[in-house]
Amino acid sequence: MIELSYITKSYNGKGKAVDNVTLTVNGGEIFGFLGPNGAGKTTTIKMMTGIAKPDKGTIRMNGYDVAADPIQAKKQFGYVPDSPDLFLRLKGLEYLNFMADMYEVPKPLRKERIETLGRRFDMEQALSDPIQSYSHGMRQKIVIMGVLIHDPEVWILDEPLTGLDPKSSYTLKEMMREHAAAGKTVFFSTHVLEVAEKLCDRVAIINKGDILFCGTFKEMQERFQSDLSLEKLFLELTGDE
Fold first, then answer.
1. CB crowding 59-70: b at 16 or more within 10 Å, else e
2. Which of 62, 110, 236, 239 could pair with 100 in a Cys bridge, judged by C-beta atoms 3.0 to 4.6 Å apart?
3. Which residue spans within the chain are E strands per DSSP?
Protein backbone atom coordinates (compact mmCIF):
# COMPACT_ATOMS: atom_id res chain seq x y z
CA MET A 1 0.00 0.00 0.00
CA ILE A 2 1.15 3.53 -0.84
CA GLU A 3 -0.23 6.54 1.01
CA LEU A 4 0.50 10.13 -0.08
CA SER A 5 -0.94 12.77 2.24
CA TYR A 6 -0.97 16.42 1.15
CA ILE A 7 2.48 16.37 -0.45
CA THR A 8 3.80 19.57 -2.02
CA LYS A 9 7.06 20.33 -3.82
CA SER A 10 8.35 23.50 -5.45
CA TYR A 11 11.74 24.24 -6.98
CA ASN A 12 13.64 27.50 -6.35
CA GLY A 13 10.59 28.95 -4.63
CA LYS A 14 8.76 29.21 -7.94
CA GLY A 15 5.55 27.47 -9.05
CA LYS A 16 4.64 24.21 -7.36
CA ALA A 17 5.71 21.11 -9.29
CA VAL A 18 3.37 19.07 -7.05
CA ASP A 19 0.58 20.80 -5.14
CA ASN A 20 -1.12 19.21 -2.12
CA VAL A 21 -1.43 15.73 -3.65
CA THR A 22 -3.25 13.02 -1.68
CA LEU A 23 -3.49 9.46 -3.05
CA THR A 24 -3.92 5.96 -1.66
CA VAL A 25 -2.85 2.97 -3.76
CA ASN A 26 -4.08 -0.32 -2.32
CA GLY A 27 -2.62 -3.79 -2.37
CA GLY A 28 -4.05 -5.93 -5.13
CA GLU A 29 -4.33 -3.18 -7.73
CA ILE A 30 -2.45 -1.83 -10.71
CA PHE A 31 -2.52 1.96 -10.46
CA GLY A 32 -1.70 4.15 -13.46
CA PHE A 33 -0.24 7.63 -13.01
CA LEU A 34 -0.91 9.73 -16.09
CA GLY A 35 -0.09 13.26 -17.14
CA PRO A 36 1.55 15.34 -19.89
CA ASN A 37 5.28 16.15 -19.82
CA GLY A 38 6.13 18.41 -16.89
CA ALA A 39 2.88 17.59 -15.09
CA GLY A 40 4.58 16.43 -11.86
CA LYS A 41 4.68 12.66 -12.39
CA THR A 42 8.42 12.11 -11.97
CA THR A 43 8.65 14.65 -9.13
CA THR A 44 5.92 12.74 -7.27
CA ILE A 45 7.71 9.43 -7.86
CA LYS A 46 11.04 10.88 -6.68
CA MET A 47 9.37 11.97 -3.44
CA MET A 48 7.75 8.54 -3.03
CA THR A 49 11.14 6.84 -3.36
CA GLY A 50 13.01 9.28 -1.10
CA ILE A 51 15.15 10.77 -3.88
CA ALA A 52 13.48 14.17 -3.37
CA LYS A 53 12.10 15.57 -0.12
CA PRO A 54 8.60 17.07 -0.09
CA ASP A 55 8.21 20.62 1.21
CA LYS A 56 5.30 19.32 3.24
CA GLY A 57 3.14 16.22 3.59
CA THR A 58 3.82 12.57 4.41
CA ILE A 59 4.45 9.45 2.34
CA ARG A 60 4.05 5.91 3.68
CA MET A 61 4.98 2.56 2.15
CA ASN A 62 3.08 -0.30 3.81
CA GLY A 63 2.75 1.92 6.87
CA TYR A 64 6.42 3.01 7.03
CA ASP A 65 7.05 6.76 6.78
CA VAL A 66 9.57 7.44 3.97
CA ALA A 67 11.04 10.43 5.85
CA ALA A 68 10.96 9.09 9.43
CA ASP A 69 11.86 5.44 8.71
CA PRO A 70 13.60 5.48 5.32
CA ILE A 71 15.39 2.12 5.51
CA GLN A 72 12.26 0.10 6.33
CA ALA A 73 10.20 2.13 3.85
CA LYS A 74 12.69 1.49 1.05
CA LYS A 75 12.74 -2.24 1.76
CA GLN A 76 9.04 -2.28 0.84
CA PHE A 77 9.41 -1.21 -2.78
CA GLY A 78 11.32 -1.71 -6.01
CA TYR A 79 11.80 1.35 -8.24
CA VAL A 80 12.39 1.42 -11.99
CA PRO A 81 13.55 4.96 -12.95
CA ASP A 82 12.75 6.67 -16.23
CA SER A 83 16.34 6.15 -17.49
CA PRO A 84 18.04 2.72 -17.51
CA ASP A 85 21.58 4.08 -18.03
CA LEU A 86 22.95 2.93 -14.65
CA PHE A 87 26.06 0.96 -13.60
CA LEU A 88 27.17 0.63 -17.22
CA ARG A 89 30.64 -0.76 -16.40
CA LEU A 90 29.19 -3.77 -14.55
CA LYS A 91 28.25 -6.98 -16.30
CA GLY A 92 24.58 -7.91 -16.12
CA LEU A 93 25.16 -10.67 -13.59
CA GLU A 94 27.39 -8.43 -11.44
CA TYR A 95 24.62 -5.81 -11.33
CA LEU A 96 21.99 -8.38 -10.32
CA ASN A 97 24.24 -9.73 -7.57
CA PHE A 98 24.95 -6.18 -6.37
CA MET A 99 21.21 -5.52 -6.11
CA ALA A 100 20.69 -8.86 -4.33
CA ASP A 101 23.46 -7.96 -1.85
CA MET A 102 21.83 -4.57 -1.19
CA TYR A 103 18.57 -6.28 -0.22
CA GLU A 104 20.21 -9.24 1.56
CA VAL A 105 18.76 -11.89 -0.76
CA PRO A 106 20.23 -15.31 0.18
CA LYS A 107 22.48 -16.86 -2.49
CA PRO A 108 20.34 -19.94 -3.31
CA LEU A 109 17.21 -17.76 -3.64
CA ARG A 110 18.92 -15.10 -5.77
CA LYS A 111 20.26 -17.78 -8.13
CA GLU A 112 16.75 -19.11 -8.61
CA ARG A 113 15.31 -15.61 -9.18
CA ILE A 114 18.07 -14.60 -11.61
CA GLU A 115 17.43 -17.75 -13.65
CA THR A 116 13.65 -17.16 -13.64
CA LEU A 117 13.91 -13.46 -14.56
CA GLY A 118 16.59 -14.13 -17.17
CA ARG A 119 14.35 -16.71 -18.80
CA ARG A 120 11.22 -14.54 -18.71
CA PHE A 121 13.00 -11.52 -20.20
CA ASP A 122 15.13 -13.57 -22.63
CA MET A 123 18.36 -12.23 -21.07
CA GLU A 124 20.12 -15.49 -20.12
CA GLN A 125 22.83 -15.20 -22.78
CA ALA A 126 23.51 -11.49 -22.11
CA LEU A 127 24.19 -11.62 -18.36
CA SER A 128 27.94 -12.19 -18.83
CA ASP A 129 28.24 -9.04 -21.01
CA PRO A 130 28.85 -5.48 -19.73
CA ILE A 131 25.70 -3.35 -19.47
CA GLN A 132 27.31 -0.62 -21.62
CA SER A 133 27.20 -3.08 -24.56
CA TYR A 134 23.42 -3.53 -24.17
CA SER A 135 20.79 -1.89 -26.35
CA HIS A 136 18.37 0.56 -24.65
CA GLY A 137 15.72 -2.16 -24.37
CA MET A 138 18.18 -4.62 -22.81
CA ARG A 139 19.27 -1.98 -20.29
CA GLN A 140 15.64 -1.46 -19.41
CA LYS A 141 15.21 -5.19 -18.87
CA ILE A 142 18.29 -5.55 -16.63
CA VAL A 143 17.12 -2.61 -14.46
CA ILE A 144 13.68 -4.23 -14.11
CA MET A 145 15.28 -7.55 -13.21
CA GLY A 146 17.44 -5.84 -10.56
CA VAL A 147 14.40 -4.18 -9.05
CA LEU A 148 12.51 -7.47 -8.82
CA ILE A 149 15.38 -9.52 -7.38
CA HIS A 150 14.23 -9.00 -3.77
CA ASP A 151 10.55 -9.56 -4.65
CA PRO A 152 9.31 -6.23 -3.22
CA GLU A 153 5.71 -5.84 -2.09
CA VAL A 154 5.34 -2.51 -3.91
CA TRP A 155 6.45 -1.86 -7.48
CA ILE A 156 7.04 1.78 -8.52
CA LEU A 157 7.67 1.94 -12.26
CA ASP A 158 8.39 5.20 -14.12
CA GLU A 159 7.62 4.66 -17.83
CA PRO A 160 8.69 0.98 -17.58
CA LEU A 161 7.56 -0.06 -21.08
CA THR A 162 9.73 2.49 -22.92
CA GLY A 163 12.20 0.72 -25.19
CA LEU A 164 10.93 -2.79 -24.53
CA ASP A 165 10.27 -5.08 -27.48
CA PRO A 166 6.70 -6.43 -27.80
CA LYS A 167 7.53 -9.78 -26.16
CA SER A 168 9.22 -8.17 -23.12
CA SER A 169 6.46 -5.59 -22.85
CA TYR A 170 3.90 -8.39 -22.77
CA THR A 171 5.98 -10.26 -20.16
CA LEU A 172 6.19 -7.21 -17.88
CA LYS A 173 2.46 -6.53 -18.14
CA GLU A 174 1.78 -10.19 -17.35
CA MET A 175 4.07 -9.95 -14.29
CA MET A 176 2.31 -6.77 -13.15
CA ARG A 177 -1.03 -8.62 -13.27
CA GLU A 178 0.45 -11.56 -11.34
CA HIS A 179 1.86 -9.21 -8.69
CA ALA A 180 -1.47 -7.44 -8.19
CA ALA A 181 -3.34 -10.77 -8.17
CA ALA A 182 -1.13 -11.81 -5.22
CA GLY A 183 -2.48 -8.83 -3.24
CA LYS A 184 0.55 -6.61 -3.85
CA THR A 185 0.84 -3.09 -5.25
CA VAL A 186 1.84 -1.84 -8.72
CA PHE A 187 2.18 1.92 -9.30
CA PHE A 188 3.35 2.96 -12.73
CA SER A 189 3.48 6.09 -14.85
CA THR A 190 2.98 5.84 -18.58
CA HIS A 191 2.37 7.93 -21.68
CA VAL A 192 0.75 4.96 -23.42
CA LEU A 193 -2.89 5.59 -22.57
CA GLU A 194 -4.15 2.55 -24.46
CA VAL A 195 -2.04 0.34 -22.16
CA ALA A 196 -3.32 2.16 -19.07
CA GLU A 197 -6.92 1.71 -20.18
CA LYS A 198 -6.49 -2.06 -20.60
CA LEU A 199 -4.16 -2.75 -17.67
CA CYS A 200 -5.04 -0.47 -14.77
CA ASP A 201 -7.62 -1.00 -12.06
CA ARG A 202 -7.53 2.73 -11.31
CA VAL A 203 -5.76 5.80 -12.70
CA ALA A 204 -4.89 9.29 -11.50
CA ILE A 205 -4.40 12.15 -13.94
CA ILE A 206 -2.03 14.92 -12.84
CA ASN A 207 -1.47 18.24 -14.60
CA LYS A 208 0.54 21.23 -13.38
CA GLY A 209 0.99 19.50 -10.04
CA ASP A 210 -2.73 18.98 -9.37
CA ILE A 211 -4.67 15.71 -9.42
CA LEU A 212 -7.52 16.27 -11.89
CA PHE A 213 -9.08 12.83 -11.49
CA CYS A 214 -8.55 9.61 -9.54
CA GLY A 215 -10.64 6.48 -10.00
CA THR A 216 -11.58 3.76 -12.47
CA PHE A 217 -11.98 4.36 -16.19
CA LYS A 218 -15.70 3.61 -15.85
CA GLU A 219 -16.00 6.24 -13.08
CA MET A 220 -14.26 8.73 -15.34
CA GLN A 221 -16.75 8.06 -18.14
CA GLU A 222 -19.67 8.42 -15.70
CA ARG A 223 -18.29 11.62 -14.18
CA PHE A 224 -17.86 13.28 -17.55
CA GLN A 225 -20.98 11.61 -19.01
CA SER A 226 -19.00 10.36 -21.94
CA ASP A 227 -18.22 7.06 -23.64
CA LEU A 228 -14.97 8.44 -25.07
CA SER A 229 -11.72 6.46 -24.78
CA LEU A 230 -9.27 7.20 -21.97
CA GLU A 231 -7.03 8.92 -24.54
CA LYS A 232 -9.74 11.38 -25.59
CA LEU A 233 -10.89 12.03 -22.02
CA PHE A 234 -7.26 12.62 -21.01
CA LEU A 235 -6.78 15.13 -23.82
CA GLU A 236 -9.98 16.94 -22.86
CA LEU A 237 -8.96 17.07 -19.19
CA THR A 238 -5.41 18.29 -19.71
CA GLY A 239 -5.96 20.41 -22.82
CA ASP A 240 -8.22 22.98 -21.17
CA GLU A 241 -5.94 23.65 -18.23
1. bbbbebebeeee
2. 110
3. 2-10, 16-25, 30-34, 56-61, 64-65, 77-80, 154-158, 185-189, 202-207, 210-215
Identify the DSSP state of 124: G
Pick 215 or 238 by higher pLDDT: 215
Angle, alpha carbons 180-168-96 (nearest 5°): 80
For the chain, what are the domain ranges? Answer: 2-76+153-239, 83-151
C-alpha 127 chain-centroid distance: 24
| Tens-digit pLDDT profile for residues 8-23 | 999 877 788 999 999 9
CATH topology of domain 2-76+153-239: Rossmann fold (3.40.50)
Strand duo 154-158 + 30-34: pairing: unpaired
CB 141 within 8 A of CB 164: yes
Q: Which residues have C-beta within 8 Å of that of residue 12, sequence separation ≥ 6?
A: none
Higher pLDDT: 192 or 111? It is: 111
Q: Which residue type, as a one-letter code, is found at position 57? A: G
**Contact (CB, 8 A) for 228 and 222:** no
Average pLDDT, integer, range 95-106: 95
Query: Whose CA is closest to 127, among 106, 150, 100, 104?
Result: 100
For residue 204, the cross-strand partners are: 33, 214
